[in-house]
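pinned: reference chain
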Amino acid sequence: MSYAMSGALQAAVFAALQGDAALAELVGTNIYDALPAGNLPPLYVTLGAEEARDASDVASRGAWHDLTVAVVTEAAGFAAAKTVAAAVSDALHEADLALSRGRLIGLRFRRARARRETGGLRRIEMTFRARLEDD
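pinned: its structure tokens
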């Protein structure tokens, strides 16, 4: 297994989200890899947790990566967050991302969870599964 492609995957996912016109119409530039200090906007997207496991075989090194992207809002309901989550899903599901290391074989939506958090926030966490091969 190689975890060496994780940074390249994260950078490509982040760039894809930042470059998506439909998502930009909904949240502007409020897409974060790391949350900024100070007050946060009322609606934003952030990269979250990642799990990786070996997918190597005799011919190549590879890995499965389950990565999380979250939509967070202060809104009283989930409607706005679900609209943004749909745009995130459209931007990433089966996206053809170029990596600075390795190769993306496939990227698919796996699951989502919507929940209320302490302080009145709403959060939707979407998990996407990527299959990577190292060159």
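why pinned: The longest helix spans residues 79-92. The chain has three helices and five strands.
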